[in-house]
Amino acid sequence: MTVASPYAVELARMPVSTRVLPVAGSETHVWEYGDSGADARARAAAGTLIVVVHGYRGDHHGLEPVIAQLDHPGYRIVAPDLPGFGVSTPMTAAHDLDGYVGWLHEFTDAVRAESPSARLVIVGHSFGSIVVAAALGGTPSAPGSPDAASRPALAVDAAVLINPIAAPALKGPRGVMTRVAIGYYRLGAAAPEKLGYAILSSPVMVRVISVTMAKTKNRALRRWIHDQHHRYFSAFANRTVVLDAFRASVSNDVSEYARRITAPTLLIAADKDDITPIGAQHRLRDSMPDARLVVLDDVGHLIHYERPIEAAAAIDAFLEPRP
After folding, report:
1. Which helix (H) or strand (E) holds 102?
2. Is 12 exposed, middle or buried (0-12, 13-18, 19+ CB in 10 A)?
3. DSSP E strands, the chain
């Protein structure tokens, strides 16, 4: 039985449209929220275009609780399922960080062309924060030349990173848990195809991960969080996709690109995040040319589920004044 969302009322107020865009070989499914996503004329008139990039093994549903609080006139909010996850088909490129960065460039160019005069804001959560940071920072052309980019930096007016992966995951507060996860994914990779897929999509493991990450003591909210993970956390196209993306998620972090990110950036971090210690979030802010840090207390890596109202309020304050 589906558990009702605590944010269903807010979401029901927002117009939602869906479509499919061919990007980097992926049939990328896109959800657009707000009046400005209704048709071509409305998209062209949007004052602010917000592109939302979800985290590892999730899909567009994950950030809907935050999106539901951003129902403002003139906002066009675009939330795709990443290639290979949700209902989007895989890319032709590898599903590593470089592949996702290339896809994000192409996807952003496509939706920005529809709203050419809009302020462009890009939002990334968790693994999405790494993809966004790598796109904003550009790709070094060669070792020893960190300021020269072989792929130009994605040009945006502002960026928001929610639960940013500010340091290597193996050095996080639960580095041991990350190593256990690596062993789990290696087991899924070593097993025969069908068995490996079953291991990687195991409801038992999904529940263990969900219980570990949830910090709220609200039973109803915890029940809904577990239901969300049960419904969407194993919606990946195949074993290769989920393994490639996992390697990218634990082999990279936002700090690698921080000094090259010149766009004004809001970091929304949690004091009980099991993946990144709060000290690393402060160091990340200090290493970026133009960054603000908002820390939410008594929450972990699920800000988008447990504290979306506060996260949206921080985004609103960061983006004021609205056009």
Report:
1. helix 97-114
2. exposed
3. 16-23, 26-33, 48-53, 75-80, 119-125, 139-140, 149-151, 158-162, 265-270, 291-296
Question: Which of the four pLDDT bands, split at 50, 70 and 90, describes residue 171?
Answer: low
DSSP collapsed to 3 states, 242-272: HHHHHHHHHHCCHHHCHHHCCCCEEEEEECC
Return the SS3 of 311.
Answer: helix
Buried b (16+ CB within 10 A) or exposed e, 68-99: bbbbbebbbbbbbbbbbbbebbbbebbbebeb
Which stretch of DSSP H or E encloses residue 220?
Answer: helix 219-232
Ramachandran assignment for 126, one of left (phi > 0), alpha (psi -120 to 50 degrees), beta (any other): left
Ordered by where they begin, the domains of the chain are: 8-319 (3.40.50.1820)
- Residues 105 and 135 sit within 8 Å (Cβ to Cβ): yes
Question: Per residue in 264-292, is it b (16+ CB within 10 Å) or e — as a string?
Answer: bbbbbbbeebbbbbbebbeebbeebeebe
Task: Provide CB contacts within 8 A for 100, sequence distance 6+.
Answer: 82, 83, 131, 245, 248
- pLDDT digits over 31-58, tens only? 999 877 678 888 888 999 999 999 998 9
What are the pLDDT digits (tens) for 258-288?
Answer: 999 999 999 999 999 988 999 999 999 999 9
- The one-letter amino acid at 162: I
pLDDT of res. 11: 87
What average pLDDT score do residues 56-69 get?
A: 94
Judge if pTM exceeds 0.85.
yes
Q: What is the C-alpha to C-alpha distance for residues 23 and 255, in angstroms, rounded to an integer?
A: 27
Single-letter amino acid code for the residue at 38: A
